[in-house]
Each structure stands twice: as C-alpha cells, then as structure tokens.
Write a structure and sequence with these properties.
Molybdopterin biosynthesis moea protein, domain 2, six-stranded mixed β-sheet
Length: 412
Amino acid sequence: MESISEHLTPLDFPYTEIEEAWEHIWAHVKPLPAVEMPFQRTPGLVLAESIRAREPFPPFPASTVDGYALRSAEGDAWRTIVGEQRIGTPAQRPLQPGEAVWVATGAVVPEGADAVVEVEASLREGSRMRPRYVPTPGHNIRPVGFDIRGDEEVLLRGTRIGPAEVGVLATVNALRVRVHPRPRVAVISTGDELVPPGTPLSPGKIRESNRYTLLAAVELYGGEAVDRGSHPDEPSRLRAALIDAVASADMVVTCGGVSMGNRDYLKTLLAELGHIHFGRVRVKPGKPATFATVQGTPVFSLPGNPVSALVGFYLYVLPAMRILGGTPGWEHPWTPVRLAHPIRREPGRVEFQRARLRREGGTWWAETTGEQASSRLLSFVGADALIRLPAEGDIIPQGTEVPAFLLRLIPF
C-alpha cells in the first residue's frame, strides 16, 4: 500500500472560529446556474427569477357566498328572482331594478348587482326574495383583482417554493419557471476498519454508518445524494475517489481521515488537488473539520466519529447546500431556548449538544439527550435541536438562554 511520509494534520492549520468558518463558506460557495422546469416539479427549489402576474385574479367580480346578487340601494325590499348564476358559467344579462339572481360561491356577480346576501339571511316566497338586513355596496363580493392585481409581482427571486407558491404559480399561469436545481452531493467514507452492514465483524472491524447517515441527511434536506462508496486509507485510491467525485457532483462530503493519525491523508490530498480554506475549527465536537475547493467544487471533510460527522453536516454542509440551491449567504435560524438543567463541560471551545425541547409558559426549555460523546450517535435519536454552548465556563447554569438550531418541527 502506498504511504505519504509527510502529510498535513489539523495542527498545520490555525484555529478557525465558527463564525469565520461560515464566512469562508459564504465566500466560496455560489448558487448553481438556474434551469427552467415545469412549475409542478419545483417544490423545495428556489426561484431564480421573480414572477409577475399578467392578469388580475379573480378576473371577474365573484361571490364569496351562496346567495342572491342584488342592488344594495333597494334596501330590504322584495325582489323578483330572475335567474341562477352557477360557478364556471358566463355572466347573465345585467341586473335590472327590482331583480335578484341566485349566485353560487365563486360565481360571476352580474353587472348591475353590487352586493350578495347569503341564502340563510334571505326570505323567499316562490319567485321572490328579500334580505333580512339592508346590505351595503360590495358586501360578499370579491372585486376584480382582489387577490392578485394585474401586473403584480407575486413571488420574488430567492423564494423557496412550497405548496402555496406552487398554487400561486398555477394561478398566474406560470407554466415553466427558472429555479436553482437540487445540488448533487457526493458522499465518500474512508477507513480501513469499515465493513458494510450485513457483513460479519472480524477483529478490529466496525460496521460503517457515517456514509448512510450523511446520504440520508443530504436527501432529507433537499439535495440529490450521490453514493461514491467507502475506501481504505490508501492515498492513490483516495485521490482517485476525490477526483471522480468532484467531476460528478456539485459538492463532495468525505468522512474520516482528517485527524492526527499517520494514515489520515485527506488534508494532504485536498491541499494537492485544490485549496483548503479551513482545516481546524474551535468547536466541539468536530474540531478537525475541513473545507476546501477543488476545481471550484466545495469539498467538506468531516471527522469519522458519527456525532462529529452529523454535527459537521448541520454546521457546514447544510449551509453550503442551501447556498448552492439558490439562497446566498444562508445562515442557521437560531431559536432562543433556556437550559432545563445545568451542564458541566470542558471550556475552551464552542460546543453543540443534542437536546430535546419542551414548551412551558411561552418559553422553550432544552434538556440534553444524555451522554454527549462524539461516538454516541444515539444522542441524535429523538433530538429536537442542536444547542450552542459558549466557549467560556465549565458549568453552564440552569436557566441560561442559549441559541438552538431546530432539527425538526416542534409542535406548539
């Protein structure tokens, strides 16, 4: 097997503070070029153009209730019912004095009528009706352009498309729109000790989990995961794997091979193939996390401990995915929470712990998920948030307010 006599370790890089690490990501990761696609295929993507309506909605005065269209100036007098205006049919002839027309919810209000009285608020005798109250002009009518004005800008560039946005696109007949595509993220794991699930364990081996964890995270957060396999700690094979991954994806994520071992080659390979922007971050867990660009492609090399890898995904890979997907300068949306119990820890590094949240009296309270060792992936199971603890202090008191990054939606 090939070896490298001189290779880089985290000690070859100055400490980068977490805010500085994010600034490197914002500076060196750019949105993917826009593509055009049918609006039905765009949920989860980000608009690369603003969308403007070309016609008003509704395009006609529409009734908001089932009732009778009439002239409000005639008060609560009896009217003759002269017809029925169903939804989806053209307007009837203009309404004459003393007349009323039954209209369905969403149907055209005929010319000459300026109010609609609900069926339940009307008296009817044969072909006559009268309202139980005196209506006012515009009552129960959506005028032309009430929801969307003609030539109105309805969706701004940079909007992430959800169900409501798809509905708006359909409403304004925006059949094809320009969006930033889902980023293709190649995931590589490294390590001589790894065997795939389903393989019997031999002495010194462990079952691989990080690659599957990271592939799942990429898919969950809207990327297109590209599985580039697991590779032993051999420089030539790792170099080839990196080159192939860079050529096939918009971003590359590796796991393992970035710490202090004499077979941790990834930093050296990244320095040979591209440029390393940071190679050590003052955080816990995941101090050796590395960010580089190779031929313009972002590459994140995360530590091999399972928790360090997944925390690194949330801290670095997810922001880069959001930027590639069309959200420049995306930052984590931190939510303030209070600690439900004191936390003892080693000072000196910003720490991200896994926590469950509960709400009491309008305040979110955070309780850690137990042992926070970087090898214990179970600390992520059932976690609602990553809470950020300051670098100072060996005991963080109960009730201290700290920022939390929500890992899932929390019911109120």
